[in-house]
Amino acid sequence: MKVAILVGSLRKNSFNKTLAEFIQKRYADKLDSEILDLNLPLYNEDLESDLPADVVAFKEKVRNADAVLFVTPEYNHSISGVLKNGIDWASRITPDLTEKPGFIVGASMGGLGTVRAQMHLRQILDTMGMRILPANEVFIGAAHTKFDENGALIDEGTVAFIDSVVHNFVEFYDRNK
Q1: Which phi and psi (to 5°) does residue 152 adopt?
Q2: pTM (2 decimals)?
Q3: How confident is the model at residue 51, as a pLDDT?
Q4: In terms of CATH, what superfamily is 2-176?
Q5: Rounded to whole angstroms, how far apart are CA atoms 24 and 126?
Q6: Beta-sheet pairing, 101-107 with 131-132
Q7: Are 4 and 87 in contact (CB under 8 A)?
Q8: DSSP calls for 1-64
Q9: Residue range 123-138: mean pLDDT, rounded
Q10: How far apart are CA 93 and CA 137, in angstroms?
Q11: Which of 38, 71, 100, 138 has its CA 20 to 30 A from that of 89?
């Protein structure tokens, strides 16, 4: 399964980028995944008649993916502008997200993980007709205690839970192809 990974943080040492890289490496036998560059120009309808090259490349990768993994931080109780901008580009001109299966994960230093951001993200994606894996919420709280200095996810309970969610997503995808 070809999976486009959208990470809602541009920060070099982002826990969410580290989480995406962990998922990409650990499940390489199940998911042929690519972390897409979300450092795109701000969505502007005026650019739709002559899309910037990086937007064209981004949209093509999303369109050609079988599924999308959203990795979201939580900024001010919602998703980041970076992630929203990527979603806006992916949903315009050609509906690159419609009917596409996906799942959501997120990490935060706070105790609740990314609960509120993920609620908003699910609401946004629902309006696009995406098929998001239900009942498998990955809210990684206290992320700074769950990764080591090299970016390895060291919390065994979290790793085991993500193992089960990825397994559930593969089954969900197979049922909904």
Answers
A1: -80, 135
A2: 0.96
A3: 96
A4: Flavodoxin domain (3.40.50.360)
A5: 25
A6: parallel
A7: no
A8: -EEEEEES---TT-HHHHHHHHHHHHTTTT-EEEEPP---PPP-GGGGGG--HHHHHHHHHHHH
A9: 94
A10: 30
A11: 138
